[in-house]
Amino acid sequence: MSETSSPAVGGTTAAGRPDEVELRLPADGAYASVLRTLTAGLAARLDFTMDDIEDLRIAVSEAAAMVLDEADSGAVLDCRFRLGTSELELTIAADAQSPTAPDYESFGWQVLATLADEAAIDAVAGRYSVRLLVRSSLAS
């Protein structure tokens, strides 16, 4: 009987591309729990600690709230995850015809800057996105 193993998470696919996951949801706060749950599950697969996962859930909630505040009515929330070795990069974006300039003094931004290793906001006519890069505390 031969043993089979599942592919390593956080590396590359057989084709040499990084592991990526996409999720599309209605841009409505009612679906934020789905995004938080997926994020926590992916982080767990990357062996993030429980504290890391809880911090990531908080950061994702803040990022999603920022994007939802700017999203056009009826827009779709596009969430893209890139899984690396002990790190998770995610981008949350939605169509926004007239997004406001990022407020780097806001409470939400301060949360992202504290909990993520890297954070960025891209607000251009037609699209608003927040990108986060979070590394496992075990990788330090």
UniProtKB/TrEMBL annotation:
* Top enzyme class: transferase
Q: Which InterPro entries match?
A: HATPase_C_sf
Q: Any idea which UniProt keywords this protein has?
A: Kinase, Transferase
Q: Name one GO molecular function term.
A: protein serine/threonine kinase activity
Task: Report the EC code(s) recorded for this entry.
Answer: 2.7.11.1
**What protein does this entry describe?**
Serine/threonine-protein kinase RsbW
